Amino acid sequence: MREKELRFALICYGGISLAVYMHGITKEVWRLAAASRTFHDEAEPAAVDAYGELLVALAARSGIKLRVLADIIAGASAGGINGIFLARAMATGQSLDPLTELWLDDADVDRLIDPDARPLSAATKFWAVPIAGWAMKRRGNVIDRTVGEGAQDEVRAKLSRFVRARWFEPPFGGQIFSGLLLDAFDAMASGPQGRPLLPAGQPVDLFVSVTDYAGHSMPLALNSPPRVTEQEHRLIMHFRQDGRAGKRLDDVPGLAAAARATASFPGAFPPFTLRELDSVLEKRGIAWPARADFVRVQLPTGSEADPSDRVLIDGSVLANAPFRPAIAALKQRPARREIDRRFVYIDPKPDYRSISFGKPGEGGEGEARRPPGFFSTILGALSEIPREQPIRDSVEAIENMSRRIRRMQRVVDAMKVEVEEQVAALFGTTFFLNTPTPARLDRWRAKAQAEAAARAGFAYAPYGHLKLSAVVEELVALIDRLAPPEGDIHQRNRRDAVWDEIRSRGLDR
């Protein structure tokens, strides 16, 4: 039976979408990947759920044994949290089931409110209760539209306590949130354990967007002046599981730090610093041996003396749908069979805006359209509009990439017959009968290279220089990973030094 892989690159939308809501979506992706692993690995897999039945039916109908996996995951805010747990489940084989009960019970408004922010008594801000009650009892209010009838009274009671909590400071506790995230990792570790949901050697890339509140300086190479610096507030934390490179998604405190930072919604949670997590870990007696590596890899250098003081806030402020790192991660991924790649954008609430201060330009029935008001304009510009930017540019970039891939596929398909004929003429039938060995492969490669150069004529020189240039770029990238450059000029000098050495040895001729 022919095998094929369906690989997902998940983009988990941020904002103020509830972690519970997003968790349900990512959990279905996990269930599909788990059913696919069982279907692919077992000789006679049993269809234990709807996804298993779907894969069995697809194989019977098309003759294709499909493997489904999510190997690139990017998210912000609540999407970042659930993307982190999904990536860890994919890489380790842990279950997401324990998180459902934990989110429902512990990720509750009453439990997340900081103890110092709770109303001291029923009389606290008593005057706010009628206002909240009036807003909640209006016909067609948001609770009536979005909450089931059986839970509406509970939501109204919790909202009443929430509006009477601390004002002008974040009502939710940062350390409480960090502790909840650590509890979630513990729940997964103590839950059911299975085999990883990815083939051996298949890497997993996880990207979590965070906003650097103070910003960090980034060099920018120009013509005149040759170099300037600008403040960058966007920050992408990158975690990777790659058995070939010895990288694993096992830095639980680091993953918890990323989850806490990406979901530090302004006004709801206090900004995140590593000092907060250090305090929580110390109270729990948890060591963080990879802390120095986390600081070196994930946090930019800045003016603060201690990276623990760097202030991080919600990733959805500037990168609500982090497509760019997911697109960049497509390069140089291993493939053992035919691959069908799909980008999946997860928006748990399509056509419903996260924050709304009224649609500008609308008037009442029979009234003339009016411009937005003073506060609507300010609040929309500062919060609503940046979070609701469309994904059209990212989708168009993916389409352009797909168009180039299809064009190259047509070229390869057109060349296939001619290449097979040339191989048969060059090596004869012994090529298909002899068992490949390192020595034979070396001879075959050298012979094919010499014949290709002779047949290509003048066209071979540009091809050779293109290959050499690619080798130089890979070498420079390796040097940069081992010893990060101080800027673009430093990196350019390294590249020039490599080329000087190549020319001195005559390797470019």
Provide an overview of this structure.
- With 509 residues, the chain is α/β, with parallel strands linked by helices.
- The chain has two domains: 2-110 and 172-349, no CATH class; 434-505, no CATH class.
- The protein is built from 19 helices and six strands.
- It has helices at 19-41, 50-62, 78-92, 97-106, 109-112, 128-137, 142-146, 152-163, 174-190, 252-262, 274-284, 291-298, 323-328, 374-387, 392-427, 430-433, 438-456, 460-482, 488-504; strands at 2-12, 64-76, 204-221, 227-241, 312-313, 338-346.
- Strands 1, 2, 3, 4, 5 and 6 form a six-stranded mixed sheet that branches.
Arithmetic mean of pLDDT: 82
- The topology string of helices and strands comes to EHHEHHHHHHHEEHHHEHEHHHHHH
Q: What is the 3D shape?
A: globular
Roughly what percent helix?
Answer: 40-55%
Give a nutshell description of this structure.
The chain is an alpha/beta fold and 509 residues long.
What key attributes describe this structure?
six-stranded mixed β-sheet; 2 domains; 19 helices; 13% strand; alpha/beta; globular; 509 residues
Blueprint of the fold:
Layout: E1 2-12, H1 19-41, H2 50-62, E2 64-76, H3 78-92, H4 97-106, H5 109-112, H6 128-137, H7 142-146, H8 152-163, H9 174-190, E3 204-221, E4 227-241, H10 252-262, H11 274-284, H12 291-298, E5 312-313, H13 323-328, E6 338-346, H14 374-387, H15 392-427, H16 430-433, H17 438-456, H18 460-482, H19 488-504
Parallel strand pairs: 1-2, 1-6, 2-3
Antiparallel strand pairs: 3-4, 3-5
Helix pairs in contact: 1-2, 1-3, 1-4, 3-10, 4-9, 6-8, 9-10, 9-11, 18-19
